[in-house]
């Protein structure tokens, strides 16, 4: 018997209750019954975004919301600043270029977080930039960005702050309104504990003026159509009814645990994973790590592509390797969404087992012991 666990930074494990909700018989979307679900899901997502503004749900993976953010704000020829410190920062850059923007990049060494000084310098150099695009939780490196600090700069400028919060929604506190963020995007297969296929976007009041004037073509991703329809508690096109019902269940579970408890659980899982990796002599890839995934430098001589394949195929435990320049060199343990303290011990123990078999020398069990010390009060 092999039992499968996914400790990946998306898609993540889905609770059985949520799978059952997704499997319910089809419901027509132009009905009061579906509108009630859509209204609740939207109101509950606002709590995760920390906003009073509407959160629009789009059929598509997280990137659909990223594209909606750019397509609705950036016109061809305008300037865009993109912070690039990993694969997802690169995605902002590629998207802005695709929409004809002149992109100024703020290069951040992989594993580091952008500084306020870097953001300040870029905004000073490019005062007419339409957007500043950042990644709250850079999943490819595990590095966290101080969104609040950067928002304190953009809120006094004409430049809109656009934030990829795809692996922070439901994991880290996101306070869109309080921080003064203009656009926040997310996806369903990370902290929201459901299958891939939904993307989310919320925009600030001042962003609508930009949306009105934006000349980029868009049809399926037109925010104005989404707003007009949500005012009637419906969607412009057929929504993925089953996924939205799954999300309704997942958000019920999140609300039952309590959002602040959900954030605290992720912080604890991150702290335990970090302690475990240090206890077996490894170092973290990110200077200022996120709470949804822990990226770890592999020991000398261990190829993480081999390590993750072994863990998945032989032990049934999936973690992620590295991307880009870090392919084969780091491994990433995802602990976002439906992950308990007990689950985490499976991840840590299996990482230890794989490393041992691949020839890395350390005291077996040291990581599990360190994780337990953080997770459980065993005085
Ligand atoms: C997963 C992820 C995305 C979105 O990827 P999709 O495959 O389109 O869902 C974007 N940004 C970050 C930081 C992510 O972790």
Write a structural description.
The protein is an alpha/beta fold. The protein folds into 2 domains: 240 residues, Type I PLP-dependent aspartate aminotransferase-like (Major domain) (Aspartate Aminotransferase, domain 2, 3-Layer(aba) Sandwich); 117 residues, Aspartate Aminotransferase, domain 1, CATH 3.90.1150. The strands form 4 sheets. The protein has a 7-stranded mixed sheet, sandwiched between helices. Strand 8, helix 7 and strand 9 form a beta-alpha-beta unit. The longest helix has 21 residues. The protein is globular and about 60 Å long. The two termini are 36 Å apart. The mean pLDDT is 98. Pyridoxal-5'-phosphate binds next to helix 3.
List its salient traits:
alpha/beta, Aspartate Aminotransferase, domain 2, Aspartate Aminotransferase, domain 1, 2 domains, two-stranded parallel ribbon, 14 helices, binds pyridoxal-5'-phosphate
In short:
With 379 residues, this protein is of the alpha/beta class. 43% of the residues lie in helices and 15% in strands.
């Amino acid at each position: 018997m092999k039992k499968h666990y996914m400790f990946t930074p998306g898609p993540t494990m889905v609770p059985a209750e949520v799978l059952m909700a997704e499997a319910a018989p089809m419901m027509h979307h132009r009905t009061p019954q579906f509108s009630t679900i859509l209204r609740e899901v939207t109101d509950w997502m606002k709590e995760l975004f920390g906003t009073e503004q509407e959160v629009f749900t789009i059929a598509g993976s997280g990137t659909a919301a990223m594209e909606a953010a750019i397509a609705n704000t950036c016109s061809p020829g305008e300037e865009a600043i993109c912070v690039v410190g990993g694969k997802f920062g690169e995605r902002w850059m590629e998207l802005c270029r695709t929409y004809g923007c002149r992109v100024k990049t703020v290069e951040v060494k992989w594993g580091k977080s952008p500084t306020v000084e870097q953001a300040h310098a870029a905004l000073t150099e490019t005062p007419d930039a339409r957007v500043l695009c950042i990644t709250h939780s850079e999943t490819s490196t595990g590095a966290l960005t101080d969104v609040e600090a950067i928002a304190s700069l953009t809120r006094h400028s004409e430049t809109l702050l656009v934030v990829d919060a795809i692996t922070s929604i439901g994991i880290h506190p996101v306070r869109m309104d309080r921080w003064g963020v203009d656009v926040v995007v997310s996806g369903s297969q990370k902290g929201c504990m459901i299958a891939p296929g939904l993307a989310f976007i919320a925009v600030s009041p001042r962003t609508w003026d930009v949306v009105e004037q934006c000349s980029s073509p868009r049809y399926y991703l037109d925010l104005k159509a989404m707003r007009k329809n949500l005012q009637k508690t419906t969607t412009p096109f057929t929504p993925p009814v089953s996924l939205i019902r799954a999300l309704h269940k997942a958000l019920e579970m999140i609300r039952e645990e309590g959002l602040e408890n959900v954030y605290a659980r992720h912080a604890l899982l991150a702290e335990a994973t970090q302690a475990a990796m240090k206890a077996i002599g490894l170092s973290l890839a990110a200077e200022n790590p996120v709470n949804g995934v822990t990226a770890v430098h592999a020991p000398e001589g261990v190829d993480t592509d081999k390590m993750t394949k072994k863990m998945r195929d032989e032990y049934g435990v999936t973690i992620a390797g590295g991307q880009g320049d870090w392919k084969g060199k780091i491994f990433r343990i995802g602990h976002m969404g439906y992950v308990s303290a007990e689950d985490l011990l499976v991840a840590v123990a299996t990482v230890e087992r794989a490393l041992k078999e691949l020839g890395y020398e350390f005291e077996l069990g040291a990581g599990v012991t360190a994780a337990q010390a953080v997770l459980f009060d065993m005085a």
